[in-house]
Amino acid sequence: MKNTFLTLLTAGALLLFAGSVVSCGSDSKDPEWEWPDPEDPDRPAAEKPRFIWVDAAANFPDFANSRENIARDLAKAKETGFTDIVVDVRPTTGDVLFRTTATDQVAWLGAWLPGGYQRVERTATWDYLQAFIDEGHKLGLRIHAAINPSRAETQLRSATRAWSSATTSNGAGPPTSTSRAVSPTS
User: Which of 21, 45, 82, 103 is the most exposed place for a label (fewest CB within 10 A)?
Assistant: First the structure.
């Protein structure tokens, strides 16, 4: 039994080694594609989109209360050749960075700042996502909103659990149906 195990282990190790040697056989360091040269009139610049991700939590201290900072960074993105901006509008907290009646808007996020981890408040009253759309479109950029759907499910499950415990403790019990469709404008 021990010899069979050692034989199988050795054979597996040899196969793994052989596979890695074969898969690493290409010496080519040249990419299979190239970024289009913006100065080349024969090659359209819109040939291949260039995306940049704007993470909600990482950029919150800079963008939460400043449309000017959003405009400044979108202009830099445009100058460096980006065509599409993906704006994270549902950070890990479960609330959102756009106007809706379906859930709460972000009031604050924690962020690492020079003085350590701090609470950053959002005091602005303008729509965060709409600011990206307005400023981006002025520059000819395409704006995309990214939403983490699992945060909505987690928030709903927590609220349902809290409601269920509260109603069960007073004997009311859960209703026969607690689900409804939620749209961003409802």
Answer: 21
Encode pLDDT of 66-76 as tens digits: 999 999 999 99
**Is residue 52 within 8 Å of residue 85, measured between CB atoms?**
yes
Give the tokens for residue 10: 């050795």
* DSSP designation for 104: P
How far, in Å, are 13, 99, 109, 162 from residue 126 at the CA level? 60, 9, 17, 32
Residue 96 near residue 106, CB atoms below 8 Å: yes
Of the candidates 81, 98, 60, the one whose C-alpha atom is nearest the C-alpha of residue 139 is 81
Taking the C-alpha atoms of residue 169 and residue 83, their distance in angstroms, rounded to an integer, is 55
Is the confidence at residue 144, as pLDDT, over 90? yes
At residue 158, the 3 state secondary structure works out as helix
CA distance 103 to 151: 11
Burial code (b: 16+ CB inside 10 Å, e: under 16) for 127-141 equals ebbebbbbbbeeeeb
